[in-house]
Amino acid sequence: MKQGDLVVRKSYGGDVLFRVEAVRTHHAVLKGTDYRLLADAPIPDLSVVRDPESTRAVQQVRIKVNDSLQRMHNQRERQAVETVDHIRLATQENQPFFEVPGKVLHLDGDNNYLKKSMQLYNTMHVPSHGLHVHESQMADVLYQLLPQVKPDIVVITGHDGVLKNRLQEDLYSLGSYKNSQNFVNAVRVAREYEKNRDGLIVIAGACQSHFEALLQAGSNFASSPGRILIHALDPVYIAIKASYTSIRDTVNLSDVIHGTISGIDGVGGIETLGRFRVGLPKPKITSVGATLKS
């Protein structure tokens, strides 16, 4: 077994696919390929996977991911048609218009997950700025970046988890988590910058994060109500949904939560206005941050 190998844990029934980050004397440091999970395991408990696409762990995740992505594309197509119809009805003609999706600032404690996230933002034409930042530095980085980037939506994510040997009653203490306190600190900085939850949408947390503390700190959406593993792209899905929901409408809570890969045990949130705008007439020169559409 060596660094870079794909493995599953025998004691967990091979439920999650990992990549070996480092090999120690008796154990290996692991990183989930799909889930935001950083773990270690005894080397005898690990089984090397030669064909990841054939494993149950990967197959189940792929189905959920494909369903989630298809839902995003379908919703975007319906919205485009509805916008054209609305403009035609309001102007009594096929008036060219332009769209301005909400801009996302995405801070991620994992560079690989950040790359996947930015690819999805680009695919969905969401204006975005991403940065790989260690969880402990996120609050300081946000303090500097928010006035510069001026985002509509902030995503604060990376790695987290409940520390070992914690009792059920310990789950409501921030000291029982790897990075929830760091995420809470970053959310508080975001709320100092913009107190209105509709003025700046904050999406925070990772696997097993302290959901209640993140909401109390000022998040609109957070993980994880059920203290479960969340998929790497769940925060991105919510950000895209908010980016393309009209400022006249609230983000449909049931739709966005059940549309994520992890579901209601993975993420939750509060009613929040969207950040998508339509404008008339279509400028001759493309505005910064705007997606022009005829």
Span of the ends, CA to CA: 55 Å
Number of helices: 7
Q: Averaging pLDDT over every residue, what do you get?
A: 89
At the fourth level of CATH, the homologous superfamily of the largest domain is Response regulator
Instruction: Count the beta strands.
Output: 14
- How many domains make up the coordinates? 2
What is the alpha-carbon Rg in Å?
Answer: 20 Å
Global morphology: globular
Helix-strand sequence: EEEEEHEEHEHEHEHEHHEEE
Strand order of the largest sheet: 8-7-9-10-11-12
- Poorly predicted runs are none
User: So, CATH architecture of the largest domain?
Assistant: 3-Layer(aba) Sandwich
CATH class of the largest domain: Alpha Beta
Overview of this protein structure:
Pfam families: Peptidase_U57. InterPro entries: Peptidase_U57. The protein is α/β, with parallel strands linked by helices. It folds into 2 domains: 6-54, SH3 type barrels, CATH 2.30.30; 60-279, Response regulator (Rossmann fold). Helices cover 34% and strands 19% of the residues. A 6-stranded mixed sheet has the order 8-7-9-10-11-12, sandwiched between helices. Strands 4-3-2-1-5 form a 5-stranded antiparallel sheet, with no helix packed on it. α3 packs parallel to α4 (180-193). The longest helix has 36 residues, at 56-91. It starts with 5 loop residues before the first strand and ends with a strand. The mean pLDDT is 89.
Write a concise keyword list for the protein shown above:
alpha/beta, SH3 type barrels, Rossmann fold, 5-stranded antiparallel β-sheet, 7 helices, 34% helix, Spore coat assembly protein, Peptidase_U57
